[in-house]
From TrEMBL:
Ranges where the record places region Disordered: 436-455, 503-581
Domain HTH CENPB-type positions: 76-145
Protein name: DDE-1 domain-containing protein
Lineage: Eukaryota, Metazoa, Ecdysozoa, Arthropoda, Hexapoda
Keyword terms, alphabetized: DNA-binding
One Pfam family per UniProt: DDE_1
Key word Magnesium present: no
Span of domain DDE-1: 220-386
Record's GO cellular component terms: nucleus
UniProt feature, compositional bias: Basic and acidic residues: 526-538
Start-end of Basic residues biased regions: 539-548
Single Gene Ontology MF annotation: DNA binding
Keyword Lyase listed: no
Organism per entry: Euphydryas editha (Edith's checkerspot)
Length: 712
């Protein structure tokens, strides 16, 4: 039978002042039993204290309350160290169970050579009674059921990734003054709405299994895409149904202006996102004169070139989040989708009560989404969601150190700054099973710097300048049992759990990752968009089936130049092979081959541009060569400097388009972006117009040889 413990203590409930008043009344001549009844003190207890007071010369020399601390294992300071260790582990998402907490307490008692009960030594852990009393003494601790969190999400939200996002956000805010009031700042994200709800708590009889009716074992997915503005408004949503063809009756009950789409999987893809982008542009009236900012995650379906071109043509600046940070940086995930799912589940349960025995289908989901949408998308919820993420009002210091604690596990030291790291093993001092605890003694090598105090969350790598040698004592100390008359004694310096426990730090990464990690970026800027275009082409090339070239005739190699997918660019830029009529027309043109005055044309190479030092800083109206590096190669663009910002060493550049004859022209839609000073590799000479025909006069020609670099 389990031990029945009383709810409250029956002895030792009196205070020091109460007992002192009772003894003074007894000394004045009152009976002990009458005083015990009046002061609500047990008669035997008062009689025992009265005998001690009579034998003593003064009441002040008598201990008037029980000395329960004599059996305590840890002092208040030591228990505070335990509490901090438990809290840090929980905040780092590596919380300890009740058994783990008891084992840590036992290890700390053994390491610090404290006297403990015999049951601790037998069970190799602290007792359950000690843990309950420990929790009562520290009300800040509670037994919680943690939420699951993936390792990628816990470690991706760190200071570096958050600072990169806020740097990009601040740069976008500085571009357009219309973003200052928040009316043109939007957030977009998808969420899954299925035909099976998550049951809520119900009232039922005790001791009985209570169930809840759902539409099926596994629900059918309908993706809901929502748009919210920092001003507190919500645009009509987009619903993607798992069907080949979309029908208008599927949107019955949704908010007015909603868009319905269909795909076989029910998920968002690149083709549907283009239609979704058109819906967003239409509903918020975005244009070049009325620009808008759209913040979203960097899922592959969101970064199609066609969608990015469409957004840029209509004044939409797309800013993406770093992967696995949307739970803290995306307003929809922070404060909207949680109440939306609660209202959606409640609406489905109400629908099932009104339609008993009838399952929910995808044709009923639209009505349920409409009910939940109007209740969750309130101005208060939306404004508070943007405020909590620090997006609007802009606040890059919105997150505290506790928010970044889970990522400290993988905050590894830079392998290029630390040479020959020494990983000091602390397993010897944790040899509890053999009853041979050890105490750390540190010795500093001659000439080494004194050791600084380290935070328990810092890395355990030791610098070569301050090597610490760890060793055990020659004679092991056995755990000692405590007796009722013993006094709590701690020998040596106190060792906290953060010192003798294995640190929560990941090992150095093997650096075998092949895929390039995602990041926060301004996707509509030309450099980022071109990088995305190159990555898409590389993926398509890998997916193409390999051909058997043994029996195929050799083909003449033709240099391929990447072209824009937008309609305006394809009208002015066309890529031809050597047999085209356009090449024959310009084959004898002198200015295509050499300078008109016969000067030698300067040849540019990657090696030369990489080491090139600009003779001066670019100025307005200068034509410059901008370099953008990808994982495998470098790409160059020609641009015209429109404005310079000396405070940030940036230049506002309008990029030109190039064809395979190295002739450049301004696109019909200006391609504008900020460029850092270190990306400008060459200041080009003033261009001249080419040819005698009207078409040739629309191109610029530079007295430079671009044949050795990848020019776009």
């Amino acid at each position: 039978m389990p031990k029945k413990r009383p709810l409250c203590r029956k002895i030792g409930n009196h205070t020091k002042e109460n007992m002192k008043d009772a003894l003074l009344e007894i000394a004045s001549g009152k009976k002990i039993r009458a005083v015990a009844k009046e002061k609500n003190i047990p008669f035997s207890t008062l009689q025992r204290y009265a005998a001690k007071a009579k034998a003593s010369t003064s009441i002040e020399n008598v201990q008037l309350v029980p000395h329960y601390d004599i059996n305590r294992v840890f002092t208040n300071e030591q228990e505070q160290a335990l509490t901090e260790y438990y809290n840090n582990c929980a905040l780092m998402f590596y919380g300890l169970t009740t058994k783990d907490c008891r084992k840590v307490a036992y290890e700390m008692a053994v390491i610090n050579k404290l006297k403990m009960p015999q049951s601790w030594i037998s069970n190799k852990m602290a007792g359950i009674d000690w843990l309950k009393s420990f929790r009562k003494r520290h009300n800040g601790l509670s037994l919680r059921k943690p939420e699951t969190c993936s390792l990628a999400r816990a470690t991706a939200f760190n200071k570096d990734t958050v600072n990169v996002f806020f740097d990009n956000l601040q740069e976008v805010y500085n571009r357009h003054s219309s973003f200052a009031d928040g009316t043109r700042v939007y957030n977009m994200d998808e969420t899954a709405t299925t035909t099976v709800q998550k049951p809520q708590k119900v009232i039922g009889p005790k001791g009985k299994n209570i169930g809840k009716i759902t539409s099926g074992e596994k629900g059918t997915l309908v993706t809901t895409c929502c748009f919210i503005s920092a001003s507190g408004q919500a645009l009509p949503p987009v619903l993607i149904f798992p069907r080949k063809n979309y029908k208008d009756h599927m949107l019955k009950g949704t908010p007015p202006g909603s868009l319905g789409l269909a795909t076989s999987s029910g998920w968002m893809n690149s083709d549907l996102f283009v239609t979704t982008m058109k819906h967003f542009i239409k509903r918020n009236s975005s244009s070049m004169e009325n620009p808008s900012l759209l913040i979203m995650d960097n899922h592959e379906s969101h970064l199609s070139i066609e969608a990015l071109d469409l957004a840029k043509e209509n004044g939409v600046t797309i800013l993406t989040l770093h992967p696995h940070t949307s739970a803290k940086l995306q307003p929809l995930d922070v404060g909207i989708y949680s109440p939306f799912k609660s209202y959606y589940n409640a609406a489905m349960e109400s629908w099932l009560l009104k339609n008993p025995g009838k399952p929910v289908t995808i044709y009923d989901i639209a009505e349920l989404i409409g009910i939940a949408f109007t209740r969750a998308m309130t101005p208060t919820n939306i404004i508070n969601s943007f405020k909590k993420t620090g997006i609007y009002p802009f606040d890059r210091d919105i997150f505290t150190e506790e928010d970044f604690l889970p990522s400290t596990v993988t905050n590894r030291p830079n392998p290029y700054t630390i040479q020959n790291p020494l990983d000091v093993s602390l397993q010897d001092i944790r040899d509890i099973e053999r009853n041979s605890p050890s105490v750390l003694e540190t010795e500093t090598l001659p000439g080494a710097e004194p050791e600084r105090e380290q935070d328990p969350l810092e890395t355990q790598y030791i610098s070569p300048k301050a090597l610490i040698v760890t060793k055990q004592l020659q004679q092991p100390i056995k755990p000692q049992c405590s007796k009722s008359k013993d006094v709590l004694v701690s020998t040596g310096a106190f060792v906290s759990p953060s010192q003798f426990r294995q640190p929560l730090k990941a090992l150095p990464r093997a650096n075998r990752r092949k895929r390039k990690p995602g990041r926060s970026l301004i996707a509509t800027d030309t450099p980022e968009k071109e990088n995305i275009r190159i990555q898409r082409l590389e993926v398509k090339k890998k997916k193409l089936p390999k051909k058997n070239k043994a029996n195929e005739p050799k083909k003449k190699a033709v240099r391929k130049v990447l072209q824009s997918e937008s309609e305006d660019d394809t009208e002015n830029i066309s890529i031809h092979d050597e047999d085209s009529d356009w090449c024959e027309e310009n084959e004898d043109s002198d200015w295509c081959k050499e300078d008109e005055v016969g000067n030698k044309i300067e040849m540019l190479t990657d090696e030369k541009l990489l080491l090139n030092i600009l003779p001066r800083l670019p100025k307005e109206e200068d034509y410059v060569l901008v370099r953008f590096s990808t994982k495998r190669k470098s790409v160059y663009f020609v641009g015209k400097v429109l404005h310079e910002r000396n405070d940030k060493l940036e230049y506002y550049v309008s990029f030109l388009r190039a064809n395979r004859k190295y002739q450049f022209h301004m696109p019909s839609n200006p391609d504008l972006s900020y460029v850092k000073e270190y990306d400008v590799k060459f200041i080009l000479p003033k261009p001249c117009l080419g040819g005698s025909t009207l078409r040739q006069q629309s191109y610029y020609y530079f007295n430079v040889d671009f044949s050795q670099i990848d020019i776009r």
